[in-house]
Amino acid sequence: MTFQLDADGSQAPGKVSADRYAEGILSHRLPTEMRRLQVMERMLDPDEMASLAGLGIEPTWHCLELGAGAGSIARWLAEQCPQGRVVAADVDTSFLDQSRSSNLHVVRQDVERGEFPPASFDLIHARALFMHLADRDALLGRAVRWLKPGGWLAVSEADMFPVDSTPHPAIGKMWTAAEQLFRSQGSDPRWARRLPLLLGRAGLVDIGMSVKVDILGGGGVTDEFWRSSFAQVKPFLLERGLVDESVYDEAHALVDDPNFRDTLWAYVRAWGRRPRD
What we know:
Elements: E1 4-5, H1 17-23, H2 33-53, E2 62-66, H3 72-80, E3 85-90, E4 104-108, E5 114-115, E6 121-127, H4 136-145, E7 147-160, H5 169-184, H6 195-201, E8 205-213, H7 221-239, H8 245-256, E9 265-273
Parallel strand pairs: 2-3, 2-6, 3-4, 6-7
Antiparallel strand pairs: 1-5, 7-9, 8-9
């Protein structure tokens, strides 16, 4: 099986994701991005792996990990499917090591322009990807075509809480600024709630959904993730005048306060199966 970019594929208006990604706040070129992704893996992987295992993964499955990032889920899937194959696709594969597993194949692919052969995979998984794509609804439908009959599509994304309900003004200002920054590069941090609806519209059945709310404050990996994320976006926020230094410092100090507790978003996981007939 071969994979290649589809030169005639549809493109979103303006810059495609590869260009926005290379220049944006989540670029692999940023010196802090690898660590941020690794902290995110520690924060999300246990629940992610448990959710995927619940789909009944078999040793012979062929899997596709879209937006593979630093590769933890792709490597785990390769372990679960020793007689199958796992394709780890990302627009920037510099954080992915194909040598870690003989049945792991790394592909540099921009999902907005690329294609995979129809009916190729028993499982397609994506995390923190579709919310950053301009034509996310249509692209979700395209991914369904790549599933074998009976195959599963599993997607997890963050969904922001309304910031006006936080009792901490600095957190509200930081979170509002972060949402503006994400939206300026084509992301939609309030999209994940639509996932079950979109999976059904794409023709999938046996649709499921789970939601987990993470608590900010009190120490632990969630605080570590937000410290690293705040630090990474700080130059972008200040450069665009979305917040000033005092607001950033106040929000950062709150996360370090042992009495601080708040929540910023929920992690939405949704999955569905392509009918066998």
